[in-house]
Specification:
By secondary structure, this protein is mainly beta. The chain is built from three helices and 41 strands.
């Protein structure tokens, strides 16, 4: 009897073990497919926090358990994790009124800040620097966002040392298959010395000035450049050339990099030039949105801003209309200096200030949502390229470099993107890119007619734009991806250059009145209730709403072309400029 009891107990235990193992196997089989944590948006996960999983390619953490919040922010100056100056880990989840202003109160605590003591470093006036901001999201790994800033002032260089960077050319996109052998070459000479080029050495740095960027090496000097000797009538400069080849195979495709070339004289003085390059290819889109500002106070370099997982955001919030702006200006195009340049003035027409003075036409200004950046088009070798600059005209940077005309641009409501028109295939089409010029995407394709003058919705990822044959233009609206493309104008008059009001309820545009004169009109954002606001015989063009939704600025052909403002209902029209040259393309700049 006892033996039989023992046998029954053993059989019962075996049955429990068998069915227990079967249950566990089924549970594992039905478990959600794990995420490969080695797949990141832009860079490998080198330097990521250690995990208990020793094989990252077979991670067993279910997707639902991976944290999609940013858990760490590391900041480097003038180089990546391997080559840059480590500034530290930023404090995160700080209050950020700027993020809340754009995306709503739920995003008030996504701010970050880092203060770095500069006691061992000197940031020379006029030098441009790269800030590498690494953010870590467990679900995606480390991601890199690069930002640039320029120290105010003029660099301490010697004008007597003249030089060039012939290769790579400024803003050149290099083929990926040649990145392992990037040649930097040009010439340099100290013009105070007549019996030789007079230089001591040539040094080359990547992504930062001397003492900050990665030192690529000392270039070979004394290379024959008879063209230089002939150009300056001195055969002793025939050997003023230099050359250096470096391995750029680790540079990220689509990312922008600065090459600094320093020429030192025998007396220790120097001059330098900077050439911006990128490697052919598309930079992977980050999951992290980072907005940053830079400041120096009491010898501390302060990096602050906000960082958010883009997947948390679907739209922004309407901007409050009672914000107390510290600066209110109008930015416009004027040929008062002899050619078309970008100018600014107060909203009463005072404090006229020239912001650009390049060799070609500079036009079509557009203002970032925070009022701190201006995008504009400049004529470079016969093609319109898009530049950005600070609100005061400093920090100019070319962000496009294609053999086409780029114009009619506008920032997205959060400053992440710039929409623009590109003249390609014998017509204008609408494109979008990130605000640093990367990741360009085409949104419209119609070689038979023009799609242009895009303008961003004030708190949604969509735009209005003008489309149609001359004299029969209509206003269309579409999403950031080019989808949900719908015509919103009702016909009857032509509709051109549309602009949303800051609350998104109205659209201002220019169209032709009964006398076939261009005037300013306004309508509801669904195309209803069209009202004509101007009726002068000189016409009116290119309207734009103020950020507080109180005013509209526009230009007329009166006296050759001048800037006016009026209330949003068309009342109290006031002339702001009265120059003998053409003034046009005015937009508001509040911050």
């Amino acid at each position: 009897m006892k033996t039989m009891t023992i046998i029954l107990i053993v059989l019962f235990a075996l049955i429990i073990i068998f069915f227990g193992a079967l249950f566990i196997n089924n549970a594992i089989a039905n478990r959600k497919t794990p995420v490969d944590t080695t797949e990141t948006a832009s860079i490998a996960t080198t330097g990521a926090p250690e995990t208990t999983d020793t094989d990252s390619t077979t991670a067993t953490i279910p997707e639902t358990e991976l944290d999609e919040h940013i858990t760490d922010i590391e900041i480097y100056l003038d180089g990546d994790k391997e080559n840059g100056i480590f500034l530290g880990n930023a404090a995160y989840r700080l209050a950020s009124g700027d993020a809340a202003l754009v995306y709503g109160p739920d995003f008030n605590d996504f701010g970050f800040e880092l203060a770095f003591d500069l006691k061992n470093y000197t940031l020379e006036p006029g030098t441009a620097h790269s800030v590498y901001i690494y953010s870590f999201i467990p679900a995606y790994g480390w991601e890199l966002t690069k930002k640039e800033f320029t120290m105010p002032g003029d660099p301490p260089v010697s004008d007597a040392i003249r030089m060039s960077i012939d290769n790579p050319r400024a803003d050149e996109m290099l083929p990926a298959d040649s990145a392992s052998q990037i040649r930097v070459s040009g010439w340099a000479a100290d013009f105070r010395v007549s019996d030789s080029p007079g230089k001591n050495k040539i040094e080359v740095y990547l992504d930062g000035p001397a003492g900050f960027g990665k030192f690529l090496g000392q270039a070979e000097s004394g290379i024959e450049r008879t063209d230089v000797g002939n150009a300056f009538g001195n055969p002793n400069y025939n050997n003023s050339g230099y050359s250096l080849v470096f391995d750029g195979s680790n540079l990220v495709p689509g990312e922008n990099y600065n090459i600094y070339v320093y020429a030192y004289s025998r007396t220790g003085e120097f001059n330098y030039l900077v050439s911006n390059i990128s490697i052919q290819g598309e930079r992977p889109e980050n999951n992290t949105i980072i907005k940053s500002d830079f400041d120096i106070k009491n010898n501390e370099f302060i990096i602050s801003g906000w960082a958010i997982n883009k997947n948390f955001i679907t739209r922004g919030v309407p901007r409050a209309l009672d914000i107390d702006y510290s600066l209110k200006k109008i930015v416009f195009v004027s040929s008062i200096a002899g050619k078309e340049d970008i100018w600014s003035m107060n909203i009463d027409g005072t404090d006229l200030t020239q912001l650009t003075d390049g060799p070609g036409r500079e036009m079509y200004p557009s203002i970032s949502p925070d009022g701190k950046k201006i995008a504009y088009s400049a004529d470079i070798d016969g093609y319109w390229q898009i530049f950005t600059m600070n609100w005061d005209g400093s920090g100019k940077k070319q962000i496009t470099n294609r053999p086409y005309r780029h114009g009619y641009h506008a920032w997205s409501f959060d400053g992440r993107f710039i929409y623009f028109g590109l003249y390609i295939d014998d017509s204008w089409d609408v494109f979008v890119m990130e605000s640093d010029g990367s990741n360009t995407r085409r949104l419209t394709t119609n070689p038979q007619l023009d799609n242009w003058h895009p303008y961003s919705h004030p708190f949604e990822y969509k735009i209005v734009y003008e489309s149609g044959f001359t004299g029969n233009e209509e206003i269309w609206e579409m999403g950031l991806d080019g989808q949900n493309n719908n015509k919103i104008s009702k016909g009857g008059i032509n509709y051109r250059a549309p602009k949303y009001s800051i609350d998104g309820n109205k659209i201002a545009f220019m169209g032709r009145d009964r006398n076939n004169i261009e005037q300013i009109f306004i309508m509801d954002s669904n195309g209803e209730n069209v009202v004509q606001l101007t009726d002068g015989p000189e016409g009116a063009r290119l309207p734009c709403f103020s950020p507080d939704n109180r005013l509209i600025v526009y230009n007329t052909l009166a006296a050759g072309g001048n800037i006016f403002i009026m209330n949003i209902d068309g009342s109290q029209k006031i002339q702001l400029t009265n120059t003998p040259r053409d003034d046009w393309g005015a937009v508001f700049m509040y911050h």
